[in-house]
Design goal:
Number of helices of chain A: 1
Oligomer: homodimer
Distance between the termini of chain A: 29 Å
Helix content of chain A: under 10%
Number of strands of chain A: 11
Strand order of the largest sheet of chain A: 2-3-4-11-6-9
Shape of chain A: globular
Chain lengths: ~120, ~120
Amino acid sequence: MILRSDELPRSADVAKHGGVGEFGVETILTKEQMGKAGRLFVRGTLKPGHSVGMHRHEGDMEICYFLSGQGMVREEDGKTYTVYPGDVNVTPSGHAHEIVNTQSDANLVYLAVVLFNGDR
Amino acid sequence: MILRSDELPRSADVAKHGGVGEFGVETILTKEQMGKAGRLFVRGTLKPGHSVGMHRHEGDMEICYFLSGQGMVREEDGKTYTVYPGDVNVTPSGHAHEIVNTQSDANLVYLAVVLFNGDR
């Protein structure tokens, strides 16, 4: 099955974890398709200045693969990292992260995958 | 944890499923990190003319997100699709696919994720 980039189902943008603005979602796998493997496989978009607020993963892990734009990842120890296309933010269970589009002129686009990799 | 694009661990290129040439692997998650969620989360590279041969998924599903280059996906019914960056090839359990870099001047680069989404 081929999903075309410009035909991925878009859902209404929602603010996430107290972040600024909205998180645009294009679904690659539904929760049902993820089954026991996880609960999220999407392409997410943060507009300039928008963010996903600091949140902790418990019982799952998140992999964010940055596709375009430039942003900032903050981890729970307060350390911040500038991220570029091709970089990856891995947040294991028990850890927290925040993602911010720090640019004023470009969207920050990334694949977000949440996996159930432990015992459930 | 941040993994930088140019520092992803590269493993020796391997021929896959009788394809042409080699499949270059940059690891994003190890098999251990995938745990019960799956068995593969890599950025793969096919050089011009190289391919991953037709193979069937049984008990797992593969998601291929195309990052750069242009290629061809063939499914088990013989249908072929030209794929471009941002397109996705989803191969559920019980289905087969083949991936070919059809270009002569550019690598075909994609994220390959294999998930255990069913009962195991």
